[in-house]
Amino acid sequence: MIQGKKMLVVSAHAADYVWRSGGTIAKYIKNGAEVHVVVLSFGIRGESNDLWKKEGATYESVKAERLAETTEAARILGIEHIEFWDLPDYPMAPALDEAVRERLIRKIREVRPDIILTHDKNGEDVLNPDHNAVSRFVFESSIQANSNGVRIEGTKTTKQMRLFGFEPHQTELSRFFPGELIDITEVYDQKVAAMKCFKAQSHLIEYYTERAFLRGNHIRRISGNQTYKYAECFSNFFPVAGEELV
Fold first, then answer.
1. Which residues, 6 or more positions from 88, have their beta carbon under 8 angstroms from its beta carbon?
2. 108-164 tens-digit pLDDT
3. 206 is in which domain, residue-wise?
4. pTM score > 0.90 for this model?
5. Residue 128 lies inside a defined structural domain of this protein
6. Would you place residue 246 in the very low, low, confident or very high pLDDT band (cuts 50, 70, 90)?
7. Per the domain annotation, does 1 fall within a domain?
8. 120 in any annotated domain
9. Which residue from 86, 77, 76, 138 is spatially nearest to 113, judged by alpha carbons?
10. What integer best gives the mean pLDDT of the chain?
């Protein structure tokens, strides 16, 4: 049941959460969940190639355009809780220091999510090492958030939440293993509209549109539900645990 659930999405760059989970985010919000998004960087150095082609482009001008793109995309998806941490990218790993780790642990403990969405757990995105660094960083921070021994003033330890990994670009090359297929048919148009905000990476709009159609085929075949037209796919960080096979 989606209503009343809390979700935290941690995105390495300004558009990752839209390409990879925009439909799921919109669906959860539409059906009564509370969704928080943390965008660690704007992807100014590594994910803004088209913007850098503009005459007179500067770091600050590219940053301003990326902020405008992702802010509008978030609005379309219905996101009310979003933070931009403005870390440097390409590479991002050096910026994920102890201060940022404590900040994320604090955020996890504040939101107390049932679900965290972030980059794929395998950490083998063949084209983007930032995604791999963020996946490990979020996983480790979530485990620390659950630990009574990690003392951060003003916060309380969380219980184990479910973690899911985004499907990366170049899925097969990145050794992504599907774990969950989520029907996004009811919010598909919202996702497409949100993707179209990103002029810096327009080539990915067609890719993720086709990917939603492909995963729609898979979810129909596996579930038998022929009303499913479009879907998103995630990896599982942990096995499903319960009283029966589901």
1. 41, 45, 94, 95
2. 999 999 999 999 998 789 889 999 999 999 999 999 999 999 999 999 999 999 999
3. 6-236
4. yes
5. yes
6. low
7. no
8. yes
9. 138
10. 96
